[in-house]
Amino acid sequence: MLRSPWVGIAGLVLVVAGVFAATTWFGGTTGVSGEAHTEFSPTPAPTRSATIRLAEDAPVVGVSIGGRHRAYVLQAFLSPSTHIYNDMLGPVPVTVAYCNLNNCVQVYTAPDRNKPLDVKLVGADPTNARSMSLKIGDYLYSHQSSTPIKPGDPAFPYTVTEYKRTTWSEWRKEHPDTDLYLGNLPLAPPDETTPLAPRP
Question: Which of 15, 119, 170, 193 is the most buried (most CB within 10 A)?
Protein backbone atom coordinates (compact mmCIF):
# COMPACT_ATOMS: atom_id res chain seq x y z
CA MET A 1 0.00 0.00 0.00
CA LEU A 2 1.44 3.37 -1.02
CA ARG A 3 1.75 6.04 1.67
CA SER A 4 0.72 9.56 0.75
CA PRO A 5 3.65 12.06 0.84
CA TRP A 6 1.43 14.36 2.86
CA VAL A 7 1.61 11.95 5.78
CA GLY A 8 5.40 12.33 6.02
CA ILE A 9 5.21 16.11 5.81
CA ALA A 10 2.53 16.22 8.50
CA GLY A 11 4.70 14.09 10.78
CA LEU A 12 7.69 16.40 10.32
CA VAL A 13 5.54 19.43 11.15
CA LEU A 14 4.36 17.76 14.36
CA VAL A 15 7.95 17.01 15.45
CA VAL A 16 9.09 20.62 14.87
CA ALA A 17 6.04 21.95 16.69
CA GLY A 18 6.74 19.67 19.64
CA VAL A 19 10.35 20.85 19.97
CA PHE A 20 9.25 24.49 19.82
CA ALA A 21 6.57 23.92 22.47
CA ALA A 22 9.01 22.19 24.82
CA THR A 23 11.57 24.95 24.43
CA THR A 24 8.98 27.64 25.10
CA TRP A 25 7.59 25.75 28.10
CA PHE A 26 10.97 25.58 29.87
CA GLY A 27 11.72 29.25 29.18
CA GLY A 28 14.94 28.79 27.24
CA THR A 29 16.33 29.52 23.83
CA THR A 30 18.76 27.51 21.82
CA GLY A 31 22.21 29.05 21.46
CA VAL A 32 24.77 28.58 18.76
CA SER A 33 26.26 25.62 20.61
CA GLY A 34 22.90 23.85 20.66
CA GLU A 35 22.61 24.01 24.46
CA ALA A 36 19.55 25.65 25.95
CA HIS A 37 20.27 28.81 27.95
CA THR A 38 18.23 31.54 29.56
CA GLU A 39 18.47 35.07 28.17
CA PHE A 40 19.21 37.72 30.84
CA SER A 41 21.00 41.04 31.25
CA PRO A 42 23.81 40.63 33.79
CA THR A 43 24.13 43.31 36.47
CA PRO A 44 27.68 44.73 36.55
CA ALA A 45 29.55 44.16 39.78
CA PRO A 46 29.89 47.36 41.82
CA THR A 47 33.29 49.05 41.56
CA ARG A 48 35.09 51.25 44.08
CA SER A 49 37.78 53.80 43.30
CA ALA A 50 40.33 53.57 46.09
CA THR A 51 41.71 56.87 47.35
CA ILE A 52 45.36 56.84 48.38
CA ARG A 53 46.03 59.51 50.97
CA LEU A 54 49.34 61.17 51.70
CA ALA A 55 51.11 59.63 54.69
CA GLU A 56 51.51 61.82 57.76
CA ASP A 57 55.27 61.19 57.75
CA ALA A 58 55.73 62.03 54.06
CA PRO A 59 58.80 64.27 53.47
CA VAL A 60 57.96 67.83 52.47
CA VAL A 61 59.75 71.07 51.68
CA GLY A 62 58.11 73.80 53.72
CA VAL A 63 58.22 77.40 52.51
CA SER A 64 56.95 80.51 54.32
CA ILE A 65 56.86 83.83 52.47
CA GLY A 66 54.75 86.93 52.98
CA GLY A 67 52.77 85.39 55.83
CA ARG A 68 51.73 82.38 53.73
CA HIS A 69 52.87 78.79 54.10
CA ARG A 70 53.05 75.91 51.64
CA ALA A 71 54.30 72.33 51.94
CA TYR A 72 55.73 70.81 48.77
CA VAL A 73 55.64 67.01 48.84
CA LEU A 74 59.16 65.90 47.96
CA GLN A 75 57.89 62.87 46.03
CA ALA A 76 56.39 65.25 43.47
CA PHE A 77 59.93 66.32 42.44
CA LEU A 78 61.55 62.91 41.92
CA SER A 79 61.02 62.64 38.16
CA PRO A 80 63.49 64.57 35.95
CA SER A 81 60.57 66.34 34.29
CA THR A 82 59.37 67.62 37.69
CA HIS A 83 62.68 68.52 39.39
CA ILE A 84 61.79 72.22 39.12
CA TYR A 85 58.49 73.93 39.81
CA ASN A 86 58.04 77.66 39.23
CA ASP A 87 55.19 78.53 41.57
CA MET A 88 53.39 81.54 43.01
CA LEU A 89 52.79 81.71 46.76
CA GLY A 90 50.17 84.41 46.80
CA PRO A 91 51.67 87.38 44.92
CA VAL A 92 55.26 86.18 45.47
CA PRO A 93 57.09 83.89 43.01
CA VAL A 94 58.63 80.77 44.52
CA THR A 95 60.68 78.17 42.66
CA VAL A 96 61.45 74.83 44.29
CA ALA A 97 64.28 72.86 42.67
CA TYR A 98 65.27 69.36 43.73
CA CYS A 99 68.32 67.42 42.52
CA ASN A 100 68.20 63.66 43.05
CA LEU A 101 71.92 63.32 42.27
CA ASN A 102 72.89 64.83 45.62
CA ASN A 103 69.50 65.02 47.37
CA CYS A 104 69.78 68.81 47.35
CA VAL A 105 66.89 71.28 47.54
CA GLN A 106 67.04 74.96 46.64
CA VAL A 107 64.25 77.52 46.84
CA TYR A 108 64.38 80.80 44.93
CA THR A 109 62.27 83.93 44.97
CA ALA A 110 62.21 87.50 43.68
CA PRO A 111 60.17 89.77 45.97
CA ASP A 112 59.82 92.53 43.36
CA ARG A 113 58.49 90.21 40.67
CA ASN A 114 54.77 89.41 40.34
CA LYS A 115 54.96 86.41 38.02
CA PRO A 116 56.64 82.98 38.18
CA LEU A 117 60.40 82.78 37.79
CA ASP A 118 61.85 81.39 34.56
CA VAL A 119 64.14 78.70 35.96
CA LYS A 120 64.69 75.70 33.66
CA LEU A 121 66.56 72.41 33.98
CA VAL A 122 69.03 71.69 31.18
CA GLY A 123 70.89 68.65 32.52
CA ALA A 124 73.92 67.87 34.66
CA ASP A 125 76.35 70.56 35.80
CA PRO A 126 79.48 70.20 33.62
CA THR A 127 81.62 71.37 36.54
CA ASN A 128 80.01 69.03 39.08
CA ALA A 129 78.66 65.67 37.96
CA ARG A 130 76.49 65.43 41.08
CA SER A 131 74.61 68.67 40.53
CA MET A 132 72.02 69.96 38.09
CA SER A 133 72.54 72.77 35.62
CA LEU A 134 69.90 75.51 35.60
CA LYS A 135 69.16 77.92 32.79
CA ILE A 136 67.85 81.43 33.39
CA GLY A 137 67.64 83.53 30.27
CA ASP A 138 70.82 82.86 28.27
CA TYR A 139 72.98 81.80 31.22
CA LEU A 140 73.69 78.56 33.06
CA TYR A 141 74.00 78.20 36.83
CA SER A 142 74.90 75.44 39.24
CA HIS A 143 71.91 74.23 41.22
CA GLN A 144 74.04 73.33 44.23
CA SER A 145 76.01 76.58 44.52
CA SER A 146 73.78 79.06 42.62
CA THR A 147 76.87 80.36 40.83
CA PRO A 148 77.48 80.86 37.09
CA ILE A 149 78.87 77.81 35.35
CA LYS A 150 80.79 79.96 32.89
CA PRO A 151 83.24 82.42 34.47
CA GLY A 152 82.35 86.02 33.75
CA ASP A 153 78.60 85.44 33.36
CA PRO A 154 76.19 87.50 35.51
CA ALA A 155 75.56 86.46 39.10
CA PHE A 156 72.51 84.36 39.93
CA PRO A 157 69.60 86.77 39.42
CA TYR A 158 67.22 85.50 42.11
CA THR A 159 67.26 85.29 45.89
CA VAL A 160 68.04 81.93 47.48
CA THR A 161 65.49 81.75 50.29
CA GLU A 162 65.02 79.65 53.40
CA TYR A 163 62.98 76.48 53.56
CA LYS A 164 62.51 73.56 55.91
CA ARG A 165 62.76 69.87 55.10
CA THR A 166 60.49 68.01 57.47
CA THR A 167 57.44 65.74 57.47
CA TRP A 168 53.92 66.75 56.58
CA SER A 169 52.63 66.23 60.12
CA GLU A 170 55.40 68.31 61.70
CA TRP A 171 54.99 71.14 59.19
CA ARG A 172 51.23 71.23 59.72
CA LYS A 173 51.70 71.42 63.50
CA GLU A 174 53.92 74.48 63.05
CA HIS A 175 51.70 76.05 60.38
CA PRO A 176 48.05 74.98 60.77
CA ASP A 177 46.99 77.35 57.98
CA THR A 178 49.37 75.82 55.41
CA ASP A 179 48.27 74.45 52.09
CA LEU A 180 49.73 71.42 50.32
CA TYR A 181 51.33 70.94 46.90
CA LEU A 182 50.99 67.40 45.50
CA GLY A 183 52.17 68.03 41.94
CA ASN A 184 50.80 65.39 39.58
CA LEU A 185 50.88 62.62 42.16
CA PRO A 186 47.69 60.51 42.30
CA LEU A 187 47.29 61.29 45.99
CA ALA A 188 44.72 62.94 48.19
CA PRO A 189 45.50 65.01 51.29
CA PRO A 190 45.51 63.14 54.61
CA ASP A 191 42.21 64.76 55.55
CA GLU A 192 39.44 66.67 53.83
CA THR A 193 40.21 69.95 55.61
CA THR A 194 43.68 70.42 54.06
CA PRO A 195 43.62 73.06 51.29
CA LEU A 196 45.47 72.05 48.14
CA ALA A 197 47.75 74.31 46.14
CA PRO A 198 47.05 74.45 42.38
CA ARG A 199 48.49 71.55 40.42
CA PRO A 200 50.95 72.28 37.59
Answer: 119
Task: Let me know if residue 8 belongs to a domain.
Answer: no
Residue 200 exposure: Cα atoms within 13 Å on the Cβ side: 17
Q: How far apart are CA 21 and CA 18, in angstroms?
A: 5
Q: How many domains does the chain have?
A: 1
Q: Does residue 75 fall inside a structural domain?
A: yes
Determine the structural domain holding residue 98 and report its residue range.
59-181
Alpha-carbon distance of 132 to 77, in angstroms, equals 13
Using a cut of 0.90, tell me whether the model's pTM lies above it: no
Asked if 108 and 157 touch (Cβ cutoff 8 Å), the reply is: no
Answer yes or no: is 190 within a domain: no
Q: Which residues contact 35 (CB under 8 A, 6 or more apart)?
A: none
**pLDDT, tens only, 41-55:** 333 333 334 468 999
Distance set, CA 72 to CA 84, 155, 158, 195 (Å): 11, 27, 20, 13
Residue 168 located in a structural domain? yes
The pLDDT tens digits of the residues spanning 178-187 come to: 999 999 999 9
Looking at residue 183, the DSSP 8-state letter turns out to be T
